[in-house]
Design brief:
By secondary structure, this protein is α/β, with parallel strands linked by helices. The protein has two domains: 2-120, 3-Layer(aba) Sandwich (Rossmann fold), CATH 3.40.50; 128-221, putative n-type atp pyrophosphatase, domain 2 (Alpha-Beta Complex). The protein has six helices and nine strands; from the N terminus they run βαβαβαβαβαβαβββ. The protein has helices at 11-22, 51-58, 74-89, 102-114, 128-137, 163-176; strands at 2-6, 26-35, 62-67, 93-95, 118-120, 141-148, 187-193, 203-211, 214-221. The strands form two sheets. The chain has a five-stranded parallel sheet with strand order 3-2-1-4-5, with helices on both faces. It has a four-stranded antiparallel sheet with strand order 7-6-9-8, with no helix packed on it. Helix 3 (74-89) crosses helix 4 (102-114). The longest helix has 16 residues, at 74-89. The radius of gyration is 16 Å and the shape is globular.
Length: 222
């Protein structure tokens, strides 16, 4: 079955794409969105302008949609693009990286139902710590590109999700109820390497901005 992957460049979408391929799905294309609203309810934005590089080393066509990011209204933009790729790439399903967001998953499911597409959510309700360990075990090189929760600060930007990272976020979960996988928006991530890539991407420049417990890191990769 041909599928399109809703793709932000972060750990959830890239791992979902890999799991879908392992299940026998054909990855026909990636769908990314540039939102004018950095706090979009549907689309992750910190590193979205670098997904072209990821698509290139994956060898998968990339379709980029645009939206103003207005709550609920952005769903019309998503439906329009999904309908487009259904026709152009003859996809029969959509892959998402949803883990626990009922808001996102229910709305994507509704669009898929309307367009007669299968909706595949390989990470849905997955144990968050076990999931992070799977990323490390399967050689996914993921870095943190944004934080937005106490006690996370600028020092977390650029960190790789590894065993040390996992042990630290597990402790933060105990103390502050932070979701270890960042599902509550605590942090954003970007994939530099994984089994789907033909080569590892390298960070050649970065730009950091923010204050307090809200920081973002824009990266240049090649």
């Amino acid at each position: 079955m041909k599928v399109a992957v809703l793709f932000s460049g972060g750990k959830d979408s890239i791992y979902s794409a890999w799991l879908a391929k392992k299940e026998g799905y054909e990855l026909a294309c990636l769908i990314s969105f540039r939102s004018e609203n950095k706090d979009s309810y549907m689309f992750h934005t910190p590193s979205i302008d670098k997904v072209e590089k990821q698509a290139e080393v994956m060898g998968i066509p990339l379709v980029i949609g645009k939206t103003e990011g207005v709550k609920e209204e952005e769903l019309k933009d998503l439906e329009r693009v999904i309908k487009k790729v259904k026709e152009e790439y003859e996809v029969e399903g959509i892959v998402t990286g949803a883990i626990a967001s009922v808001y996102q998953s229910s709305r994507i499911q509704k669009i898929c139902d309307k367009l007669d597409l299968e909706c595949f959510n390989p990470l849905w309700q997955k144990d968050e710590v076990g999931y992070l360990k799977e990323l490390v075990k399967n050689k996914f090189k993921i870095i943190i590109t944004g934080v937005a929760a106490f006690p996370l600060d600028e020092s977390w930007l650029g960190r790789e999700i590894d065993d040390k990272f996992i042990s630290e976020v597990v402790e933060l979960k105990k103390k502050y109820k932070i979701h270890p996988a960042g599902e509550g928006g605590e942090f954003e991530s970007f994939a530099l390497n994984c089994p789907l890539f033909s080569k590892e991407l390298k960070v050649v420049d970065k730009k950091i901005s923010g204050e307090g417990n809200a920081w973002r890191m824009g990266v240049e990769v090649r």
